Amino acid sequence: MRLTQFPDINWLRDQAKNDFQNGRDVNNQPITQQGWPSVVLNTTSFGAERNGIKGPFSLFLNLKGNSIVKANGRSVALTTNNACLVNKGDFYDLIIPEGNRTDTFNIHFGENLYNEVVKEKCSITQNLLDDPFEQKNLVNAHTKSIWKSDCINERIGLLKQFYTSQLSHEDLEYELLAGTLSAVLDIQSEDSLSQHNLSVTKRSTKQELIQRISLSIDYIHAHFAESISLDKLSSIACLSKYHYLRSFKALYNCTPQQMISSYRFQKATDILSRTSHSISEVGIMVGFSELPAFTRFFTKNAGISPKRFRRVN
Length: 313
Known about the structure:
Blueprint: E1 2-3, H1 9-17, E2 39-41, E3 44-45, E4 48-54, E5 58-64, E6 67-71, E7 74-78, E8 82-86, E9 91-96, E10 102-104, E11 106-108, H2 111-125, H3 132-137, E12 144-147, H4 150-164, H5 170-194, H6 203-223, H7 230-236, H8 241-252, H9 256-274, H10 279-285, H11 291-302, H12 306-312
Parallel strand pairs: 1-2
Antiparallel strand pairs: 2-11, 3-10, 4-9, 5-8, 5-10, 5-11, 6-7, 6-9, 8-12
Helix pairs in contact: 2-5, 4-5, 7-8
């Protein structure tokens, strides 16, 4: 189900608190399965604050503008480049700043769909992760930012196309939502597997370290086009520069600056392919104030200049 307006906040709080036990959706239509239904909130807003909602496993993202998601004491700033995961059963706040337009595409995965996809994922990965605690981490994600990769963008594009076409095929909608959830869980699975690279042996210490570094990832996603120092990132993680850098490389197999450069390159190729912005404008949008510096950066990563890349794409 796709909604183009936020439902009444008090109605939603009551329904979410009781896991939709009355079996009715926002349009008072019967819900055929228990718990939260799958809902995509594809809204346009110029300011909103929706607090204290107990949600299902959810993916918050914006097609335009900015917002903030808060859950479990964590605050994630959302642009059009990242998304935010909130775990099943967590209470969340969604804040859309007043004034500028924000188009949301927040996906709340229904309980039945979520359980079926998770069951399949866990059966696939059980041979890889013998530790039940690590298997649990595949789906019990803490609130965090994730980069909108090509895979995630492709999945969102298919859902947008489906809703724009105004088709009413429930099976196709279910398939598209399941594919999106599967892609999100794949990201979570990769993160869980990379945790084994940390040299820390005590589980509680490892989890604390991952949470701290994850805070710096949130910051990188929101500010990748700005100048970000190692001092800033290690400060956000409350770690020494040495400990932060060593742990970061163990988790992501790259340095923070290499990750930032990767995001800048991905964003530049996307803008060059989809828009008519001048090459100078594209450079500024991904953090380069001077055209020669952007051209050198792009050519080094793509093997061709941004001008030629645009011609062949």
